[in-house]
Amino acid sequence: MAANMNLQNMDFDRLVASIRQVHDSVATQVGKAVNISLTLRNWMIGAYIAEYELCGDDRAKYGETLLRDLAERLTDISNCNRRQLYDYLKLYRVYPQIVRSVSAQLQVIAPEHVAQVVKKVPTVSAQLALPGEKLVNSLSYSHLKLLVDLDDDLKRAFYEIECIRGNWSVRELKRQIASLYYERSGLSKDKKKLSALVQSSAEQAAPKLAIRDPYIFEFLGIKPSEVMAESELEDALLNKLQDFLLELGHGFCFEARQKRILIGDTYGFIDLVFYHRILKCHVLIDLKIEDFSHENIGQLNTYVSWYRKNMMADGDNQPIGILLCTQKDQALVEYALAGMDNSMFVSKYQLELPRKEDIQKFLEETIKDPDENEKP
């Protein structure tokens, strides 16, 4: 640790390294503490709902509308819509052992009988369960939310262990579940070899990004746009791109940056959203600091389709997406038309939107010197 370093032998480079080490260490602890607090908060909300369903004085009045009515009363509290309240209730029921992680301070505000949930006769699932302290200290709420949705106890336990052992990111856990890792392991003759192969290529959770999560944003009262930029280059490009499009005079009106949308159970973030007053439609911009991939354009098409279904007002034309991929001194621009089959309509869009060549030139010049226009 930096604190144990012999100061007599410290040079400038070691000073820089020590400061970085202190920063990273403290940032990791803060991120972990925030994630633990959020998990316990959601678990206790679920506990209160479960207790109310069992013995609430006026529970019969609400019945099946309980979560909907509760969500309507809690609009001033982050992450408490009807679906999320259901998730918290499920978290409480699937992971009763988390009660042992509730601190003495929080026990004061916990439901009166909540501690009794771990005194039940052990079941098969209880025998498989990891200690609550291990779960809460090793996995974020977003990890647990994915695990709670698994109905098979053995399958859930398998992913808990593998996720903790490999320090998987939430994205990696989701990918492994989707790739049927559990089922493949069951069919594999050499399970250790398969596990080693999976773990060797798994994406690990980065301590610095531990709190970059939609749930955490709202929990802390932080806007996603304040922390979502993945790099200084990306942030600089988005700043310049926003100004560039507004200065074109083609009718772009800025609406949002890092616009968060919920598709099913997954949050997406759209880098820039404009409304085009001439075309009378939304224009979504997605910037990727990487080479073009079909996944990129597929993601943007999904965003465009979501906007078409949920955000179009009377008199609006269909939204359009612009995908920008950058790699070194090259740039690629693709338009996402979301299934438009009217050639005249597409042609009109092409006349009003900036040419691909102009955007590519702008991106390439900005990548070479993203701070050029900010120099005195």
Q: In DSSP terms, counting alpha (H) and pi (I) runs of 4 or more, how many helices?
A: 16
The backbone outline, from C-alpha atoms, is globular
Overall structural domain count: 2
Q: Name the helicity range.
A: 40-55%
Strand content is 5-15%
Main sheet characteristics? 5 strands, mixed
Question: Low-confidence parts, pLDDT < 50 over ≥5 residues?
Answer: 118-124
Q: Structural class, from secondary structure content?
A: alpha+beta
Q: Report the count of strand segments.
A: 5
What is the terminal-to-terminal distance? 41 Å
Describe the strand arrangement of the main beta sheet, using strand numbers: 1-2-3-4-5
H and E string: HHHHHHHHHHHHHEEEHEEHH
Q: What is the average of the pLDDT values?
A: 79
Radius of gyration: 25 Å
Structure description:
The structure is a single chain. By secondary structure, this protein is of the alpha+beta class. The chain folds into two domains: 2-214, no CATH class; 223-374, Trna Endonuclease, Chain: A, domain 1. Helices cover 51% and strands 12% of the residues. It has 16 helices and five strands. It has helices spanning 12-55, 66-73, 82-94, 104-107, 124-128, 132-138, 141-148, 153-166, 170-178, 181-187, 191-200, 214-220, 232-247, 294-310, 343-352, 356-368, and strands spanning 252-263, 266-276, 281-288, 320-327, 330-336. A five-stranded mixed beta sheet has the order 1-2-3-4-5, with helices on both faces. A hairpin with a 4-residue loop joins β2 (266-276) and β3 (281-288). α1 packs across α3, α2 (66-73) packs across α3 and α13 (232-247) crosses α16 (356-368).
